[in-house]
Amino acid sequence: MLILNRGRPSQSRSDPLLFSSRRVFLNGKPHVDFRKGLNTLFTRNALSMYLGIQENIYKRHFAAWMADPDPQAKEYMMPFRDLNMETSLRVFCGDYISEKGQKDISDHYWLITLALQLVNFPFALPGTKVYNAIKARKMTIKWFEHASAESKKRMAAGGEPNCLIDGWIKAMQDARAERENPDLGSDARRTLVRDFSDREIALAVLSFLFASQDAMSSGLTYLFQHVADQPELLRKVREEQYRLRGGQLDAPITLDLIDQMEYTRNVVKESLRIKPPVIMVPYTAHKAFKIDDNYTVPKGTMVIPSFWNSLHDPQAYPDPDKIIPERWMQGPDSPAQQHPRNWLVFGSGPHYCIGQQYALMHLTAVLAAASISMNWKHEITPTSNKVRVIAGIFPEDGARMKFSPRPAPSPTATPEEAAAA
Ligand code: HEM
């Protein structure tokens, strides 16, 4: 744990040049109010809508990976990022962003990530990473403002919500109508009764992209790597998939189905625990608190706990460096369930990750879909298990993999036989 007396977390949370307008990093009551307005974006209804968008994107990316004619393994860290970027942009903005716009954002977003590396020239002079990142940010915000403006028109004309921005704008419009109609539903009541400008919506969506893209890419990269390195995990995931889906392997994944994927979900949880995408986050002590007999943290101090240590604490997670999905399935007396505060993958307190459910659903759905449609091999190199920090954490060798199609199992095979094939 790192303790910086009299730190100012509002400045330390991010590079102020890039993200000074990120409203989600407000504090106190304005932050609570703002988050209340965003809760409607991650309800079960909203997650169901996103899932429908996600699955088609996965299938397209899987098909491209399997079609690669090169028989050698290659680095997959960037293709995993691309899958996440397309998923995020379509989930957040639907079809309001053209294919070209999406490609531009995806290509340029990498410049923002590079600017967040620890060692960087700190001035925005032409050619520097910070300068490139500011340009990339401006272009991305323009697209998000466009998406918001188009969505406002479509929702006002009675269109059905197809993405996160639609859902937000519909909730805003319903909340506005509620002023005249007190019988409207509770979803509308939870939303702040105020109109957000296109710019405010664009900045919030940018903050979602920023908060999600690197963490999700790190999570996905390690997930593919972990299950390839431990085939027993993948075999059990497949067994669960074949059992839950019966003969209907092509039927769309639903949220109810995901709820039943207990083993698959716990592989995701363990993979995130072993390699947490975010390794530290700064917090402020709002009142003095005692660390031990020798030290009490004074009020106003910035405290940076190490998530890694909490997530590898043998008291909470015996045999902490091993992926053991069953540790989450052993009932309320198990060490993992007895130490819920150690589970810091998505942070803690009022700023805990707003996208947690969406992120877990996404990673579970990708693994579920991948396990039954593809086989994959991970080429282990001397640096596969070395960690490189680029906003999130990644394997130093970029995760070298080779994907191939997985034949459909025989209709008479049991889930065990199908998984073992
Ligand atoms: C595996 C994926 C993800 C991980 C590991 C992750 C992790 C985190 C962590 C550690 C925090 C800081 C929490 C704290 O201060 O205590 C955070 C905050 C945040 N995350 Fe995530 N995140 C992920 C995905 C996402 C996604 C998909 C979204 C959006 C759709 C998102 C949106 C946010 C936002 C907006 C915040 C700031 C919340 C606030 O300040 O109130 N994250 N996340």
UniProtKB/TrEMBL annotation:
Pfam families associated with the record: p450
E.C. number, please? 1.14.19.41
Report the domain of life of the source organism.
Eukaryota
Cofactor requirements of the protein:
heme
User: For this protein, what is any one GO molecular function term?
Assistant: C-22 sterol desaturase (NADPH) activity
Locate the residues binding heme.
353
Any keyword Heme? yes
Keyword check for Heme, yes or no: yes
Q: What class of enzyme is it?
A: oxidoreductase
> What keywords sit in the KW lines?
Heme, Iron, Metal-binding, Monooxygenase, Oxidoreductase
Question: What is an annotated GO biological process for this record, any one?
Answer: sterol metabolic process
Q: Where is this region: Disordered?
A: 400-421
So what family is this one in? Belongs to the cytochrome P450 family.
Question: What is the protein named?
Answer: sterol 22-desaturase
Organism, as annotated: Acaromyces ingoldii
